[in-house]
Design goal:
The chain has about 280 residues and is of the alpha/beta class. The chain has helices at about 5-20, 25-35, 50-65, 70-75, 95-110, 125-135, 150-160, 200-205, 210, 220-230, 250-255; strands spanning about 75-80, 80-85, 115-120, 140-145, 165, 180-185, 235-240, 260-270, 275-280. The structure holds S-adenosylmethionine.
Length: about 280
């Protein structure tokens, strides 16, 4: 990196670290690249910033130090092979959800002789649906979102992709698909209401409450997903649902105690944290 840019981003990274930002170096570089109209690797060859760009960078670093999400400041979030437009009113897609989306792509790709039917419940920005539609263009992908602003972001991200996006409650969604779906995917809200204080400011103050909280035990939406997935799936179809790392037993139990699922499994991420469950509707 150029010497003058190096000093600029080191100062910014120190401000972000002092404010408690988890990845200060990465965020300082991302914001600098955003302001200079380049990428992080492109910073090596970037022209010196203009006074206006310096002012813009200072403003963005100040907002990030106040714990506005990085993705709200740049306006985009990377998710697997796609970029989503994000901002106020929609949940920022997280890297951990890429695992669930990848599992869904693999299961859908196993469907032989016809287009796999995939449903993304609680689509938010449309991240999972867009990843599946992009990686498996033959798939017939459907998505639903209840929040009005989030639905508008999803409509923007899914425009022209062929994904069937609906606005409404997952509980009543896709009656026309009952019994005909191969793969149901969902990253539902799963934080217990009383855990409000423990949530990082980026999420607590900027992700919609509807995207985060789910009753006293954090599993209210999970129970709805269990019922809806049982209604939508073909016999032998599969469901994958993300949950909190502390729900590695309680979330799969919602499915194993319902009496209509086989192969109920929990999956961990590379750091060994429990991340999502999968199950197959009994034939
Ligand atoms: C944790 S966010 C996940 C968003 C997206 N799938 C992702 O992984 O980035 C949960 C989403 O579910 C939506 N939601 C909550 N309850 C819902 C319901 N009953 N029906 C449909 N969507 C719901 C929220 O508005 C939010 O966008």
């Amino acid at each position: 990196m150029r010497a003058d840019l190096g000093e600029l981003r080191r100062t910014a990274a120190r401000r972000l670290a002092d404010a408690g930002v988890a990845s200060p170096d990465f965020d300082a570089d991302e914001l600098l690249a955003h302001v200079l109209g380049t990428t992080r690797p492109g910073l090596v060859l970037a022209e010196p910033p203009t006074p206006l760009q310096l002012q813009r960078y200072d403003e963005l670093v100040t907002r990030r130090a106040a714990r506005e999400p990085l993705q709200h400041l740049t306006g985009t979030a990377a998710f697997r092979h796609v970029e989503l437009a994000v901002g106020p009113g929609v949940f920022v897609p997280r890297p951990e959800t890429e695992l669930l989306a990848g599992w869904g792509v693999e299961r859908a790709a196993e469907v032989q002789g016809r287009a796999p039917v995939v449903v993304d419940l609680c689509t938010g920005s449309g991240a999972i649906a867009l990843a599946v539609a992009t990686e498996l263009p033959t798939a017939d992908v459907h998505a639903v979102e209840l929040g009005e602003p989030a639905h508008e972001w999803a409509a923007r991200n899914l425009a022209g992709t062929g994904v069937d996006l609906r606005h409404g409650d997952m509980e009543d969604a896709f009656r026309d698909l009952d019994g005909g779906v191969d793969v149901v995917l969902c990253n539902p809200p799963y934080i217990p209401l009383d855990a409000f204080e423990s949530v990082e400011p980026e999420a607590r103050d900027h992700d919609p409450d509807l995207a985060l909280f789910s009753g006293d035990d954090g599993l209210v939406a999970m129970r709805v997903v269990e019922t809806v997935a049982a209604r939508l799936l073909r016999p032998g179809g599969v469901v994958g649902v993300e949950h909190a790392d502390v729900q590695g037993e309680s979330a799969p139990a919602v499915f194993s105690t319902a009496g209509r699922w086989s192969d109920v499994r929990d999956h961990r991420d590379l750091a060994g944290r429990s991340r999502y469950l999968t199950a197959r509707l009994a034939r």
